[in-house]
Design brief:
Elements lengths: L3 H18 L7 H10 L6 H14 L2 E3 L6 E3 L1 H9 L2 H4 L2 H12 L10 E10 L3 H13 L7 E5 L4 E2 L2 E2 L4 E7 L2 H9 L5 E11 L2 E10 L7 H7 L5 H6 L3 E11 L3 H13 L7 E2 L15 E7 L3 H8 L5 E10 L4 E2 L4
Antiparallel strand pairs: 1-2, 3-7, 3-13, 4-7, 4-14, 5-6, 8-9, 8-10, 10-12, 11-12
Length: 332
C-alpha cells in the first residue's frame, strides 16, 4: 500500500515530469514552480528543488550545468507514462474544467485568454499539411478558423516547440465551456467521439470515449488510430470527424444560444448542434431536463493532415494563449 504522504510526493513528481516533458530546454525550480500553477498546483521553488533531488536520484531527470536546470530523461518519460494510473482516471474532465476556469475571454471586448489544442508538425511538411487542412477550415468543421503558429524555441500554451517542428494551435472546444462558465451556465462534458456526416450534416456518433473514466484524451487516440475521414467530410460531405458531446440544463437553452452567437461573432465557434429538451442528439440520449450539445473539435484540421500520412504530435487541451495571438487560417 502506498501511504498518503508517499502518494502526494509521487503526484508532485509526476506533475514536475509533465512540465519538463513539455520543454526542450532545461528548466529551473522557479520556472517549474510558475508552470505548475498553470496546472493548478501550488508548489514553491524550494519544494520543487526538493522533489528534483529525489528525481535525480531515481534517474528521472538530469542536471544541465547551470544553476538547477533539469531535463527529463528517458526513464523519466517512461515513469510519466506509467505513473499513478488511478489518479489519471477522470484526467480529461479535470483538464476541461481547469481550462474553462482559466478562460478569460471577454465576449464584449474580444480580449483575454482562450484555450487551445497544440499540435507539432514537421517543419518540412508544414506546407503540405496546410493544404490538407484548408478544406476543413473552409467547411467549418473546426471549432474555429482562428489559429496560431510558432517556430522552434517558441511557446504555445504549455509547450515549447522543439527543433525541426512547427507549432500549430487551434481553438479548443473548451472555449464554449469557459464562456458558459463565465456566464454562470453549467455544462457537463460527457464524451469525445467520432461523428459520422452525410450530405454535410451530422448523423450519429459511431465511437465514443467517456471523459469521466478516461486517462487519455479521446481525440489523441482517434487521430493516432487513423479513425477519422475528415477530408472526405469536408470535400463531399460524407465522412467522420472529431466531436464532443455535452449537456446543459433545459432552462438555460436560450442563454446558451445567446453566448454561442456572441462566440460566432468573435469567430471562435463554428457548426454547433444544439438539441431539444429531453431528445437525443446524433443518436445520443440526454438525461432528464437536459439539452444535448455537439461541438466539432479544433483538432479536425490536424486529423486531416494525419490522414495524408504526415506525422503529427497532438497535445490536446494544451493550455491557453492571448486571443491577440490568433489569426484566421486564411491569412497564413
Amino acid at each position: 500500500m502506498i501511504g498518503q504522504e508517499t502518494r502526494e510526493v509521487e503526484r508532485k513528481i509526476t506533475a514536475i515530469l509533465k512540465v519538463l516533458s513539455d520543454s526542450t530546454e532545461p528548466l529551473g525550480g522557479r520556472i517549474i514552480s510558475r508552470r505548475l500553477k498553470e496546472h493548478g498546483i501550488d508548489l514553491s521553488e524550494r519544494a520543487v528543488r526538493y522533489h528534483l533531488k529525489i528525481m535525480d536520484e531515481r534517474g528521472f531527470t538530469c542536471s544541465k550545468g547551470y544553476r538547477d536546470g533539469r531535463l527529463i530523461t528517458q526513464p523519466g518519460l517512461e515513469e510519466l507514462k506509467n505513473s499513478l494510473v488511478c489518479d489519471k482516471v477522470g484526467f480529461v474532465t479535470d483538464r476541461i474544467e481547469l481550462l474553462a476556469y482559466l478562460t478569460t475571454f471577454d465576449l464584449a471586448e474580444h480580449t483575454g485568454d482562450v484555450p487551445i489544442d497544440v499540435s507539432l508538425l514537421p517543419k518540412r511538411e508544414f506546407s503540405r499539411a496546410s493544404e490538407a487542412m484548408k478544406d476543413i477550415f473552409e467547411a467549418g468543421l473546426c471549432s474555429s478558423d482562428q489559429v496560431a503558429v510558432a517556430s522552434e524555441g517558441e511557446r504555445l500554451g504549455q509547450t515549447t516547440i522543439p527543433q525541426g517542428k512547427i507549432g500549430f494551435a487551434t481553438v479548443c472546444s473548451a472555449m464554449v465551456n469557459g464562456s458558459l462558465l463565465k456566464a454562470g451556465i453549467p455544462i457537463d462534458s460527457r464524451f469525445g467521439g467520432i461523428l459520422q456526416m452525410r450530405n454535410h450534416s451530422s448523423i450519429r456518433f459511431v465511437d465514443l470515449i467517456k471523459y469521466e473514466g478516461s486517462t487519455l484524451d479521446p481525440f489523441e487516440i482517434f487521430i493516432a488510430g487513423r479513425m477519422t475521414f475528415a477530408i472526405e467530410a469536408a470535400r463531399i460531405g460524407a465522412g467522420k470527424i472529431l466531436a464532443s458531446f455535452h449537456e446543459i440544463p433545459m432552462p438555460s437553452k436560450l442563454a446558451v444560444e445567446a453566448v454561442l452567437e456572441r462566440l460566432r461573432s468573435a469567430n471562435l465557434c463554428n457548426s454547433v448542434t444544439l438539441g431539444k429538451a429531453n431528445e437525443s442528439v446524433c443518436e445520443i440520449p440526454v438525461r432528464f431536463n437536459r439539452v444535448g450539445l455537439v461541438l466539432p473539435s479544433g483538432l479536425n484540421a490536424v486529423a486531416a493532415a494525419a490522414e495524408t500520412g504526415i506525422e503529427v504530435t497532438i497535445k490536446a487541451m494544451g493550455g491557453i494563449i492571448d486571443v491577440g495571438r490568433l489569426r484566421s487560417f486564411r491569412s497564413l
